[in-house]
Amino acid sequence: MSVVTNTTTIGAIDAPSRRNTELALLVFAVAIPVFAYANVGLAMTGKLPSGMLGYGLGLGLLAAVGHLVVRKFAPYADPLLLPLATLLNGLGLVMIWRLDQSPRLIQRAKSAFGAFHADAPKQMLYTAIGVALFIGVLMLLKDHRILQRYTYISMAVALFLLILPMFFPAVNGAKIWISVPGFGTIQPGEFAKIIIAVFFSGYLMVKRDALALASRRFMGLYLPRGRDLGPILVVWGVSILILVFETDLGTSLLFFGLFVIMLYVATERTSWIVFGLLMSAAGAVAVASFEPHVQSRVNAWLDPFACYKTDKTGACEQIGQAIMSFGSGGTLGTGLGQGNSDLIGFAANADFILSTVGEELGLAGMMAIFLIYGLIVERGVRTALAARDPFGKLLAIGLSGAFALQVFVVAGGVMGLIPLTGMTMPFLAQGGSSVIANWALIGILIRISDTARRPAPAPAPSPDAEMTQVVRP
């Protein structure tokens, strides 16, 4: 019998980075909008658009730079988030350019403002700024847990951003924009949703045990203690103030809904969902009873064709045209560049861009767009499940919830499911603040997913770790 002694070191199993998968998906995410761009040009003019090469190279360059930064600074991140965001952003640029070519919108802009300015080049610039912010998040935010240190600072910053539009003139009946010289208008609520998610994550991580306690059970629900209702009452009050003074139904719903979602995830108490829905409904009904702008949106939601001639805000006409555009699209749509959704008016490429998608791509195209949005939310939730720290879990679910809520609020308003709001469809609609903020949101989710999927470091080798093997003749 001989004894063979061998010293070994047990290493960590290396997880696949999936960066090559991301690169392959990015090729399709760039190619599909380029083909859509060509389709629109052929349908409207009978020839390929002159800017197709520049558009394809620009979108491809932004996607390539984003991929290289992810490969360098977040090698274990989710491989689907970047391609999905690129695909949506690219399709949004195509739809905005398609509406820029509409003779009706050009003539209407010249009649109202004396000149027409195309929105697609500006949106491309905003996309570049958004990708730059995405890169900055990945390069500067080495660990998402650093954000936990700024829990209460983020609360102050978020409230400042939400209150700031009150001091600027209303645009289309709502005070949700601020004017910045040399840049134009900014919608602070788009950035506030990310900062609010940071605050809620840090706050609920500390307070979730106290909030999860129940004093009594009533009709199958665990009722929270009276002193634990304080935080939700404060958030409810702030959301109502936003709705009253800024007449911004979308931000109010997003702000309050985000808190209720995160509260439920942190405490696993259904009672918070019930209280949240009841308080949200009570606040919305109370404000709608005396605020004219909200009343006009509610009337347009109830029956847009009945108030078509008496409404002075244009909400009934826009909702009516949007519903008819969805109906004319049918199952497969009229084809890219062959719809009439530009009849909606000045917001056709912003709040109502989903109507253009519904008319020209039909029900099938709408389901494809919603599937892409659903995949982004699903990957965010999967990131939350994989996160190893409670702050990362809450932050990922908060950002995913905010993204999902915004999609629901905008899509529901355009399709007549809920009253119309002033928010924009993420990545798809025209708007600098929206596309920039949502690229930052994707960057934070990628950072959390990289931390969650990164393999644990191998333990240091021990001089006493020996393996003894007995070999018998």
From TrEMBL:
Q: Where is this region: Disordered?
A: 453-473
Q: Which organism is it from?
A: Streptomyces crystallinus
Coiled-coil stretches are none
Q: Pfam families of this UniProt entry?
A: FTSW_RODA_SPOVE
Membrane-spanning segments: 23-40, 52-69, 81-99, 123-141, 153-171, 191-206, 227-245, 251-267, 272-290, 361-381, 393-415, 427-446
Q: What is this protein called?
A: FtsW/RodA/SpoVE family cell cycle protein
Query: What is the superkingdom listed in this entry's lineage?
Result: Bacteria
Q: Topology versus the membrane, per the UniProt entry?
A: Multi-pass membrane protein
Give the subcellular location.
Answer: Membrane
Give the UniProt keywords, A-Z.
Cell shape, Membrane, Transmembrane, Transmembrane helix
